[in-house]
Amino acid sequence: MIRRVLDSDQPYAALAHLDASGSRGPGADLLRADILRRLDRGNEAAALYRGLLSTCMVGAGHHGLGLLSGQQGNLPESLKHFRQARLAQPADPRIRSDYGYALLLSGDREAARVEFMTALELAPDHRKAALNLALLHHLNGDPSRGDALARHHNASPEELSALRREAAKLARQPGDNR
């Protein structure tokens, strides 16, 4: 229930529910770290994610650290953590999609495509992976294919516009490899 509240973009309510639950352990630590990351409390989140690296949730810990590093603009560190997360949990579509996005930002479009395709084969309704792949299609000069994929995954006109703006921005960045 707490994860659903967080996924509904209500991190303050999710934190209140987590505190009220009294839950402890790696699962609760992961939830708390994800909530704190969304609340821009990165140092607290990082400490919890690092604590997960010595548990059965090592992949989730690296995934969270990769997300934090990405938010802080540290792409090499983000890629390192996502790579470790993927090694620990190769069938997690969220990890595969996020790793693919970091690869895309680094200019490795083919590796990004593989990650997005894997995420979509693991979870065909994974909207984020589909929109990431649509972004890649735009960057590769096939905007109609990108738009069709985004629409198939119920992208709104605003989301399509944002995707096109992001593609244009990424295409202007140095190191872009078409």
Structure characterization notes:
It is a single chain. Helix content is 76%, strand content 0%. The chain is mostly helical and 178 residues long. The termini are far apart. The mean pLDDT is 93. The chain has helices spanning 2-7, 11-21, 26-38, 42-52, 58-71, 75-88, 93-106, 109-122, 127-139, 143-152, 157-172. The protein has eleven helices and no strands. The protein is globular and about 50 Å long. The chain folds into two domains: 1-89, Alpha Horseshoe (Serine Threonine Protein Phosphatase 5, Tetratricopeptide repeat), CATH 1.25.40; 92-173, Serine Threonine Protein Phosphatase 5, Tetratricopeptide repeat (Alpha Horseshoe), CATH 1.25.40.10.
Question: In summary, what is this structure?
Answer:
This protein is mostly helical. The chain is built from 11 helices and no strands. It is globular, with a radius of gyration of 17 Å.
Cα shape? globular
What would you say the CATH architecture of the largest domain is? Answer: Alpha Horseshoe
Number of helices: 11
Strand content: under 5%
CATH C-level of the largest domain: Mainly Alpha
What is the number of domains?
A: 2
List SSEs in N-to-C order. Answer: HHHHHHHHHHH
- Total strand segments: 0
Secondary-structure content class: mainly alpha
How far is the N terminus from the C terminus?
A: 43 Å
Pick out the low-confidence regions: none
Fraction of helical residues: over 70%
Q: Write down the CATH topology of the largest domain.
A: Serine Threonine Protein Phosphatase 5, Tetratricopeptide repeat
Radius of gyration: 17 Å
* Overall pLDDT score: 93
Largest sheet: none
